[in-house]
From TrEMBL:
Enzyme Commission number(s) of this protein: 3.1.1.-
Pfam families: Tannase (PF07519)
Family, per entry: Belongs to the tannase family.
Name of this protein: Carboxylic ester hydrolase
Gene Ontology MF, one: metal ion binding
Organism of provenance: Aspergillus fumigatiaffinis
Function according to Swiss-Prot or TrEMBL: Involved in degradation of plant cell walls. Hydrolyzes the feruloyl-arabinose ester bond in arabinoxylans as well as the feruloyl-galactose and feruloyl-arabinose ester bonds in pectin.
EC primary class: hydrolase
Matches recorded under InterPro entries: AB_hydrolase_fold, Tannase/feruloyl_esterase
Alphabetical UniProt keywords: Calcium, Disulfide bond, Hydrolase, Metal-binding, Serine esterase, Signal
Length: 505
């Protein structure tokens, strides 16, 4: 690592103001943070593993700027460690946050603990939700803010952070990286598509790349029981159905471990469990599975379709935790705030989306895709410029992701590979059976994904597999996940040994 002497200045007067075309810097603040200490769990350090950060000194630089003519005020926060590894690692956001939110301390803390200069942006939204900024007035979406969230702030962040690194250390970063999951994964893909020179390597995991489709699809299993004249199911019913699906489909991959590794072969019918008696985890009492629960599960697994049965978008895989689609005693699922259809598509904050008919839902689905693909979707398969720039892109996605369907990422990867036949020269996508959204679940979180990306960028060593540790019903096992479309297949040995598995096409 490069050691920066204690005499170096960390002050606004010592650090040059970054120059961003089309933007005006309003302020630059800088101050030392001494003896920074933080335990970073793997569950909050996507693409990386757990880390104990001890007594790190860094210069915290906060740049606030605006785009003249737009009513915005964007903040980029950059941490510059005293002991620097000559690399920059930008970190992504989550949900509706571009960054600089509750998890950023873990993302940036993990990076700073490994010697990276690290950066995040709030895209001008602070730590607020869309109900605070989406509408200028009823019927009028705040498109300037949405463009910042969608893509505009991402390139600004890269330019600002690199300028700060150059000013503080006297040299630019030898390599620059992006690391994100979920919305951070969408941001990573957007960077590869729109700003191919921004970063040398991008880890864009569980990406919400087809944002309008994915977010609108979330409503479908919530509305499906209502359209059938049923009440919303209970969460414990959906837990039970998930357990039944795993019990039925787990053995189909050849290893009984409580993980569905071959979801395409899962033929469990949720309606076969209707009227079965089980113990509800929320009440501790026996109950019979309702038809509403079967309808919701089928809708979640198959994905939204039109009234005529035509495909709209993908569903999540059986085995994913879909309990959030149900209600628990004392709660009303319809009381949760709506952040997409009401605000952005209908542009009416007071609209009750539970009143939508299936026909109206179909119309709004198409309208959402039409209005917001250019702003929020990162599903352009043309990564030619990114490849030409020498960039490397690595993605993992949990096959039990309850939030963003794995099949959406499969669809995107296939689209890229059809356009660029030698896609694996610069883009590799790994699916992890049993893994939930970014982390969690029984499946293995690829905690070495970022290190594999760095070796690929700096040494030209493409990752042939990623090691993971799964927590099966029969204990913990060390296994591998393979670059799609290859699958990890056990070839002798035991199911707890990485060496027992090979990637097979």
């Amino acid at each position: 690592m490069s050691h920066i002497g204690p005499a170096i200045e960390c002050s606004p007067s010592a650090i040059a103001t970054p120059a961003v075309f089309g933007a005006k810097v309003l302020s630059l603040e800088a101050s030392w943070v001494k003896n920074f200490t933080l335990n970073v769990p793997a569950d909050f350090n996507y693409n990386h593993g757990a880390q104990s950060v001890q007594d790190v000194d860094f210069c915290n630089v906060t740049v606030t700027y605006t785009h003249p003519g737009y009513d915005d005020r964007i903040t980029v926060e950059t941490w510059l460690p005293r002991n620097w590894n000559q690399r920059l690692q930008a970190t992504g956001g989550g949900g509706w946050r571009a960054g600089r939110f509750v998890l950023s301390q873990f993302f940036m803390g993990g990076a700073i603990g490994e010697g990276y200069a690290t950066t995040t942006t709030d895209a001008g939204l602070g730590d607020t939700m869309p109900d605070a900024w989406a509408l200028k007035s009823p019927g009028n979406v705040n498109l300037e803010y949405l463009h910042n969230l969608g893509y505009r702030s991402l390139n600004d962040e890269a330019i600002i952070a690199k300028d700060l690194v150059r000013s503080f250390y006297g040299v630019p970063p030898a390599y620059s990286y992006w690391s994100g999951c979920s919305h951070g994964g969408r941001q990573g893909l957007m960077l590869a598509q729109r700003y191919p020179d921004a970063y040398d390597g991008i880890a864009a995991s569980a990406p919400a790349q087809s944002w309008p489709e994915f977010v609108t699809a979330v409503y479908y299993p919530l509305l499906a029981p209502l359209w059938a004249g049923e009440q919303s199911p209970m969460s414990c019913e959906l837990e039970f159905l998930t357990e039944e699906a795993v019990k039925h489909c787990d053995p189909k991959d050849g290893i009984a471990d409580g993980i569905i590794s071959a979801p395409d072969n899962c033929d469990f019918d949720p309606f076969s469990a209707v009227n079965k008696t089980f113990s509800c985890s929320a009440t501790g009492k026996p109950m019979q599975l309702s038809k509403a629960a079967a309808i919701a599960a089928k809708a979640a697994w198959e994905g939204p379709t039109t009234v005529d049965g035509d495909f709209l978008w993908y569903g999540v895989n059986p085995g994913s935790d879909i309990s959030s689609l149900g209600v628990v005693p004392g709660q009303n699922i319809t009381a949760s705030p709506d952040e997409w259809l009401s605000l952005f598509v209908l542009k009416n904050q007071s609209f009750d989306v539970t009143r939508l008919s299936h026909e109206e839902y179909d119309r709004l689905f198409r309208l959402a895709v039409k209005e917001y693909t250019d702003v929020m979707a990162a599903n352009d398969p043309d990564l030619t410029a990114f490849k030409k720039a020498g960039g490397k892109l690595l993605t993992y996605h949990g096959m039990a992701d309850q939030s963003i369907p794995t099949k959406g990422t499969e669809h995107y990867y296939r689209a890229v590979s059809q356009l660029i036949p030698d896609v694996q020269d610069f883009y590799r996508y790994f699916e992890s059976p049993g893994l939930a959204h970014c982390a969690g679940g029984r499946g293995g979180q690829p905690t070495t994904a970022f290190d594999a990306l760095r070796k690929w960028v700096e040494n030209g060593t493409a990752p042939e597999f990623l090691p993971v540790r799964v927590n099966g019903t029969d204990g913990e096992h060390d296994r591998i996940v393979c670059p799609y479309p290859a699958k990890a297949v056990q070839q002798g040995g035991n199911g707890s040994d990485v060496g027992s598995f090979r990637c097979v096409h």
